[in-house]
Amino acid sequence: MMQKEEKIVIVLLIMAALSLTIGYLGFSTQKTAYSQDTKIGESIYAEGTVLSKQMTGKGDNLILTISNLNIKVFIQKDNGAKEVYDFVKKGDKIRIAGKVQEYRNAREIVVENAKDVVLL
To answer: Taking the chain (120 residues) in consecutive chunks of 10 residues, what is each chunk's mean pLDDT?
Structure first.
């Protein structure tokens, strides 16, 4: 028969294992593929061909249009807009990672770092 202390240790070990499992599943930062069901604020990735690229008139931010998406990709000046503009060309197949945001009642994918745009 187990002693009281042994039972407490087993219960604590089980609780620790459950906490780690919940933490892993609940707070995972793994990105999912973008879809119409993606929620605002969710981290995603998407792949497609660059249809257009345009620097904004004010602020030197970059807006990309990518095939297979009915959503714009936005890269702020401070997050590498010029760098991405220089290495991505119309017709390139790319993979982007970012967060879904809303701007003027329209969804957009906001890329937080130039390294989140990769040529395929």
So the answer is: 86 91 68 87 92 89 90 93 94 94 92 93
